[in-house]
Structure prediction request, 547 residues.
Amino acid sequence: MIKSPLQIAREKYVPKVPAALKGSVKIVEGRKTQSVADQSDIEKMFPNTYGLPLLSFETDGSEKKYPAQKVGVILSGGQAPGGHNVISGLFDGLKRLNDDSKLYGFLGGPSGLIDNEYKELTSDIIAHYRNTGGFDIIGSGRTKLEEEAQFDKALENCKKLGINALVIIGGDDSNTNAAVLAEYFVAKGAGIQVIGVPKTIDGDLKTEMIETSFGFDTACKVYSELIGNIQRDANSARKYYHFIKLMGRSASHIALECALQTQPNIAIISEEVEAKNMTLDDVVDQIVEVVVKRAENGDNFGSVLIPEGLVEFIPAMKSLISELNDLLAKYESEVNALESNKERRDFVAAKLSKESAEVFTHLPGSFANQLLLDRDPHGNVQVSMIETEKLLIDMVKTKVKKLKKEGKFNGKFKGQAHFFGYEGRCAAPTNFDADYTYSLGNTAAILIAEGKTGYMAAVRNLKAPADEWIAGGVPITSMMNMERRHGAMKPVIRKALVKLDGKPFGKFADNREDWAMNTRYVYPGPIQYFGPKEVCDLPSKTLELER
Prediction:
């Protein structure tokens, strides 16, 4: 393996961890928990793992002896910077507690567990992946664990290897899988624990106890560097509006964080669009207003940040997409059998409610086609494939052209479309994410050693220096509610949305008018791994403001 100078240097980086993870640990139980909603339904579905207490770790002066563990680890869902450090921390944590412990990586995500495809992770293998981005140490996948036959196979394969615990590293859906599997194993008396780890660059897996998901910090800093570069180009060429779509299907945390880091002229926050009951035309009018006012100042350029999931937050579009999700699940074979996009659109329009059909038939054909694309494994529309940024450019262009004819716009408008997604998912983790993920891995090892199951590894107080971070565990069921998936109600972890009364949005709202008119661009530059702490170890703006 040929390594870059940065890779070689990063292998030597020793992640910082909470004080409690440096020696023997005492577990302190906190309050008993309940689900965030639908308590009776969730309790019925998880009778053995519901109502568990919160856990925190404290330093313990006594020497504890732990038996050797055989642990399986799974990377599930989309990549996020720091996944390799979770595995490194888990490996080191298990070995520190008992050097005879073994760690097995299931290949290609949850399917590796079902198909019994694995490799033992040794110190030689782990050494090559410390502090690196990506999930390539064992690969990832999006197989959903929800059928009893899958659980039976998982149990059989774990028994073959003598595995007594599984660690599932993933987002809200993947950790829902972890909760379901934990409940199943307890009900069967299998003696196999399941621990989850909070991963998603989208930042929508968080609570008071899970302050951020790993990968968010790194991804936002990668995107913010790119946005800053584009804004510098815009301020140099002074002739383009750059419409930049950013990852974040179900929440606008990335768009908000990148706005706080780069100070664009416009940033759309999906949660605000929904709260104000805005239409697609309202969103376009908001952008046009800034374009017109900037032109009056002689500025015919700018930057516009757009959350990936914007269309799902526009109330009329949200209703339409919800109907489409159910309809396409029901008539999947019939729709797929039709030859042309127009036939598919006509078939679907005839089965929609009157209100949704009206919205659907008034959309540009190319955009309507994108709404009919295959759903992801969780039944959701694949919003990353919907070119919202191009749609907005076209709609803004049409409106300013009309205003020009009316003598209400004397400027110029040219749009450039960008989508930043994969660019941030496998970046080398920031020092913050490298430290945080390594600590999460160590935390998972202790939860396993202490016999816990149905918990998500948690590390909080993240705004403080790492030595003051607080490690522990959060019952996964405490984060759950019931939601409609594939036309049926299912237990899932509730996504955390941008809070419009929260400090991060408040900071943005207080400044956006100034940023719109006065070109206050910030150019963050590339991630720094070596140098002063005030440059290298900064957490996200969101975390700083929230905490």
About this structure: The chain has a mean pLDDT of 95. The first strand starts at residue 25 and ends at 32. The two ends are 41 Å apart (CA to CA). Residues 302 and 522 are 13 Å apart (CA to CA).
